[in-house]
Fold:
Amino acid sequence: MAAAYGDPLLSMPSETQHDTSAALSVTRDAGLADWEVRGLIQSPNYSSRGGKKVRLLIVHTAEGARTVESLGAWFSQPARGVSSHAGIDDKRIETYVPYDMAAWTARGANAIADQVELCGFAKWTREQWINEHPKMLELLAGWLKERAAARGIPLRKLTPAQVAAGESGVIAHVDWTVGMKDGTHTDCGTEFPWDHVMALATGGAPTPKDVPMAVERYTLPAGKNMEQTMIVPVFDQTSRAEMWMVTGWQPALIRGMYFIRDRGPDRTPEQEQWGGTGEWVLAPDDRPGFDLGQGCTSIAVMYDSPREIQCLIRYPAQ
Structure:
């Protein structure tokens, strides 16, 4: 399945969890005015809680969708019969189901849980979660803190045995599967950094609007066989930045793109080419986004374009 521009397609683990990979075909709008604003993509897949009290906050991994928009597109289809209250990616939180209703994603737990999907994979390592997706974890911690306060649920991570005993707290889907012997899902994986997330949640995790963002604009001139380099503004290297590209009324051929990162201990630049073939068409109506990750210092773009290409880089303000 091809991904929308800017969404790297990771291979699926041997045992899928929620498998929203088909949602990756959805093109993502830049949404520059809504960088970290919680929105609402309504899902029709929910039901009454039947008067049951919410005692659990359940965290899932989406196993395919890498943005809250593509995840919402999946949940918005009635035929899927699946949903979650909220989704979190590397930049913001999206709401899909009202919290007074039961979302459909954890079988017998649906009526007694507020549930959130991370746009990630259960196969990710602890280092990947912490080093490559710190914003997603910060937003999750903020969501847990907010929902725990709203529900009167203690901010503590439960074991499967505590789930089976009817205690209240925070769990992964696998804790319900094992504790209640209900289902087969094992997300969020064995290396999910629960200690890190719970420390953020109990210590005051930032809310989605706590990090101000700055914008730098670049204009790539029109021409054939062009190669231009954009210098990425200096920003907190524990955070992340994104770049958006917009062309005029004629398409442009992007022949290749290299992200240059200073990751080595000797600060030697390391070049990475984005994507598989490195070549794709930037259509007039597209506004693809690219996650620059940590340590990105410059971006080289090779292209043919009859019109100027506008690029915007959003990064954490100092």
